[in-house]
Amino acid sequence: MKRYLIDPPILTAGLFQRRVAVELLTPLITNHEAATSVLVYGEIVEYLQGKPDFAQRQQELRELLLEIKPYFVTYRIMERYAQIHREMRRRGPGIIGDVDTLIAATALERGLTVITADADFQRVPNLKVQLIPRTSLSQV
Predict the structure, then answer these.
(1) Which domain holds residue 33?
(2) Rounded to whole angstroms, how far apart are CA atoms 18 and 136?
(3) Domain count, the chain
């Protein structure tokens, strides 16, 4: 059963074999608890396009996504996105980016906890977040 939505910083760190990410992701993948969003794929591909080994890294990412189910955007996710965005705007400063809002909406619709290094997710009402210190993701 899927329980966690993996955000780009964590998935990218896992792709680059960063110790903290690998230790976090391995049991989640083994137990079939890890999922992500197709939007995460897009964000990571954009990042990888700046790397000299882009083709190899993109292939590794696609192989990883055979184990980590990517959810696609649906009408219900878009409706949840609109609800989150509207509520955050009404509360004042603190709106997060559209892609992050869509990722949060996916997690809420699927009943998942977001594993991320991005503290912005903590501002999304009712979203369960597991925050990983960004500095720990750079350790080999």
Answers:
(1) 4-138
(2) 9
(3) 1
Report in angstroms the alpha-carbon separations of 127 from 5, 20, 35, 133, 134: 11, 23, 16, 18, 20
Contact 60, 28 (CB under 8 A): no
User: DSSP assignment of 13-56, as one string?
Assistant: HHHTT-HHHHHHHHHHHHTT-EEEEHHHHHHHHHHHTTSTTHHH
Specify the CATH number for the domain of residue 70.
3.40.50.1010
DSSP for 42-54, please give it: HHHHHHHTTSTTH
Pick from 40, 47, 37, 100: which is nearest to 74 by CA? 37
pTM over 0.85: yes
Could you read off the pLDDT tens digit of each residue along the chain, which spans 140 residues? Answer: 899 999 999 999 999 999 999 999 999 999 999 999 999 999 999 999 999 999 999 999 999 999 999 999 999 999 999 999 999 988 877 779 999 999 999 999 999 999 999 999 999 999 999 999 999 998 87
d(CA 20, CA 47): 20
Residue type, 29: I
Residue 116 pairs in a beta bridge with 131
